């Protein structure tokens, strides 16, 4: 019986110590830095890109005063790093910021690998459905084609400085292409450099 009590006590202590070692990190904290890409790195790159796009006179809609907005599609953002990255972490923040700025709306009906949201085309398959009120079914020829495409690349370059330390450079490269002409109306590159121990990993 005593052994069971001791074992139970040790398990409880371990669980409590595990809970006590976990804590929230303040959103804008600069105390914790990893050699890999963090939430803060994506935020910094996205905010810089967002501010430049919003400030660019070349990207001002000619009917902006009347509520005119350009339509943007998200193309391919290539991950050329040693990490498993969901590039939506970068593009989503840019999309949200552009929508809130009033300059762009993102289409989810068009994407490099097909529609982000297939419901736009799915609802049009209901045009012959006897179940649906046909007056409410969305018609063909109403989906708006994008004006711009957002594409990019995230690059990682790692170099040893000496026997004990290394330098990891990351580059966030983004392009906004005007789809009527194929011209890049805006491009941005945001480097991030991190120095750390050779024992540190970036994934």
TrEMBL record:
Coiled coil: none
Position of the signal peptide: 1-19
Keywords: Signal
InterPro entries referenced in this protein's UniProt entry, alphabetically: LpoB (IPR014094)
Protein name as catalogued: Penicillin-binding protein activator LpoB
Organism whose genome encodes this protein: Shewanella sedimentimangrovi
């Amino acid at each position: 019986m005593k052994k069971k009590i001791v074992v139970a006590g040790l398990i409880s202590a371990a669980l409590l110590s595990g809970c006590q070692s976990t804590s929230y990190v303040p959103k804008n904290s600069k105390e914790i830095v990893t050699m890999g890409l963090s939430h803060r790195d994506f935020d910094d790159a996205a905010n810089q890109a967002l501010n430049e796009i919003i400030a660019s006179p070349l990207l001002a809609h000619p009917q902006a005063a009347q509520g005119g907005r350009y339509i943007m599609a998200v193309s391919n953002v290539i991950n050329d790093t040693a990490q498993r990255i969901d590039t939506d972490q970068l593009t989503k923040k840019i999309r949200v910021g552009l929508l809130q700025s009033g300059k762009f709306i993102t289409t989810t009906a068009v994407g490099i690998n097909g529609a982000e949201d297939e419901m736009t085309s799915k609802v049009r398959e209901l045009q012959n459905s006897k179940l649906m009120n046909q007056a409410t079914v969305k018609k063909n020829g109403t989906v708006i084609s994008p004006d711009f495409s957002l594409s990019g690349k995230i690059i990682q370059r790692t170099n040893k400085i000496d026997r004990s330390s290394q330098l990891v450079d990351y580059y966030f490269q983004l392009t906004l292409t005007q789809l009527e002409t194929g011209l890049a109306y805006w491009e941005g590159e945001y480097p991030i450099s991190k120095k750390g121990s050779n024992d540190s990993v970036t994934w």
